[in-house]
Amino acid sequence: MHHNNIQLAVLDMAGTTVADGGLVLRAFEEAATAVGIESDGPRREAARRYVLDTMGQSKIEVFRALLGDEDAAQAGNRAFEAAYDALVGEADIAPIPGAVEAITALRDAGVRVALTTGFSRGTQDKLLSALGWAELADLTLAPSDAGRGRPYPDMVLTAALRLRVDAVDRIAVLGDTTSDIATGLAAGARIVAGTLTGAHSAAQLREAGATHVVDSVADFPALLLA
């Protein structure tokens, strides 16, 4: 079956189209300390492991699960955002090699492109601005723009509605985490591809149900434009 009638590509940012030098984990470490998770010991280890496993999900949801208390979760999320925002200025934020070319090739071929994130809108805007990507995609979405973050289908479906896609099986999704894969599958996308430049391995992505696994975003357009 030809995949050349894909109308929308939904791509994750950090780990998929953007290399942020491990910033998420650094910001999480600062936030965990801020909300009183001891910096050493089993609780911190368990928290760190949970953050790696749930990478890509809406950050507020991660803090809710870790802290079990709404006020603490909100405080943790604010601390995370503040730490990430402060680190964005000094970190080596760069496009994953080939990302700009891939997005441009898709749009030139008539495929609409949306960039999604598990971060807040404010942090996503800082990231887009640091990269000079304000005009790169047709649409950028944070969880708050759609309803729920990953692993729910809301961001993919919101992109489909806003960009006037004819059917969900004309959507392709790309991400580096199992929650990106879960989101794409929940939304009914035809191609739900994993990429190996981020948090999770090929085995983890396949186990989550990825329809394809690519080495990087540079290889993604070939899947859609074949």
Automatic annotation (TrEMBL):
Give the molecular function GO annotations.
Answer: phosphoglycolate phosphatase activity
Record's signal peptide: none
> Which of UniProt's keywords are assigned here?
Hydrolase
The UniProt entry, under InterPro entries, shows:
HAD-like_hydrolase_sf, HAD-like_sf, HAD-SF_hydro_IA, HAD_sf, PhnX-like
Please give a single GO biological process term from the UniProt record: DNA repair
Instruction: Write down what this protein is called.
Output: Phosphonatase-like hydrolase
PANTHER family assigned to the protein according to its UniProt record, in alphabetical order: PHOSPHOGLYCOLATE PHOSPHATASE (PTHR43434), PHOSPHONOACETALDEHYDE HYDROLASE (PTHR43434:SF19)
Family annotation (SUPFAM superfamilies)? HAD-like
What Gene3D superfamilies would the database entry show?
HAD superfamily/HAD-like
One Gene Ontology term, aspect cellular component:
cytosol
